[in-house]
Specification:
The protein is mostly helical. It folds into 2 domains: 34-59 and 199-295, Helix-hairpin-Helix base-excision DNA repair enzymes (C-terminal) (Endonuclease Iii, domain 2); 74-194, Endonuclease III, domain 1 (Orthogonal Bundle). The chain contains 12 helices and no strands. α5 (121-127) packs across α6 (134-152). The longest helix has 19 residues, at 134-152. The chain is globular, with a radius of gyration of 22 Å. It starts with 38 loop residues before the first helix and ends in a 24-residue tail after the last helix.
Length: 295
């Protein structure tokens, strides 16, 4: 009689963590006990910034009456074009990224994604050089286009414009492509698809810390997840564009400056504290109050 041997099934190695953060539109904040911003605080800040920058269009355009203009941050109706625009807008000015997009259109034709994907990378680099980081952005754009074509059989993501896709499903699809992070995907949701999303760039992140709207330990990804839950949907578009306008133009809230800043004044008035000029969660030596990130 043969003796039966028992074998212990080998335990598989755990999957290696990916470098890319999987970021879906959150249903709850990563900081559930952190209760800022409130809806009232969001409304107060948007009113304050709108009075400060009345020329900033804090509402969506009527696209039916618009003519095409290359613009940063996904302000078009084609999803792939919006992704390309947003990639070009990274780490540069709106003027430079717009110039890069216009030149890309001039060289390859607007939305001729097949030509862009199949061209020598050096040709794409030359076309977008004015936008900065051209080598990296060209490679990212070509890899994105080829991935979309391989997955869907065409250079199109217009299926995401349908009502059958939730915000979570759209976000999951967008961030599945290499080079598309949570902020880029959120920009496409808000500007291109006109959904209620709240992208957090460097300006929005810095000002959110100044206002005490995110914990000190938050990074840009977790801050976006938190703010996307806390800020009322109808205020997200206006608050985003107004915070960027303030972040670009106000020198009083940058680099430990103790100059005038409407948001610092608001913060001191609402919380009764002197945050000085440090927007990074560290009190100045003159200030005895808690830092913006400690609340």
């Amino acid at each position: 009689m043969k003796r039966e041997h028992s074998f212990v099934q080998p335990v598989p190695d755990p999957p290696r963590p990916t470098k890319k953060v999987k970021a879906e539109t959150p249903l709850s904040s990563p900081f559930p006990s952190f209760d800022h911003p409130t809806a009232q605080e969001s409304r107060e800040v948007i009113r304050l910034l709108h009075s400060e920058f009345p020329e900033t269009q804090a509402y969506r355009n009527d696209r039916a009456a618009e003519k095409y203009q290359a613009s940063p941050c996904g302000g078009v109706t084609d999803v792939v074009e919006a992704l390309v625009e947003t990639i070009l807008s990274q780490n540069t000015s709106a003027r430079n990224s717009t110039a890069a997009k216009r030149n890309l259109d001039a060289v390859f034709g607007r939305n001729n994604f097949a030509a862009i994907a199949q061209a020598p990378c050096s040709q794409v680099v030359d076309a977008i050089r004015t936008g900065g980081l051209a080598n990296k952005k060209a490679a990212t754009i070509q890899k994105l286009l080829n991935s979309i074509q391989a997955k869907h059989g065409s250079y199109s993501l217009q299926h995401l414009t349908g009502e059958g896709y939730s915000d979570e499903e759209v976000m999951e699809e967008l961030v599945s492509y290499e080079g598309v992070g949570p902020k880029t995907a959120s920009c496409v949701l808000m500007f291109c698809l006109e959904r209620e999303s709240f992208p957090v760039d460097t300006h929005v992140f810095r000002l959110s810390k100044l206002l005490g709207w995110v914990p000190a330990k938050a990074n840009r990804v977790s801050a976006q997840a938190h703010l996307d839950v806390r800020i009322p949907g109808e205020l997200k578009y206006g608050l985003h564009v107004l915070m960027i306008a303030h972040g670009r133009r106000c020198s009083g809230c940058k680099n430990r400056s103790r100059g005038a800043c409407s948001l610092k004044t608001y913060r001191m008035g609402m919380r009764g504290e002197d945050i000085g000029g440090d927007v990074h969660g560290r009190p100045n030596s003159e200030s005895q109050g808690p830092s913006a990130g400690d609340r």
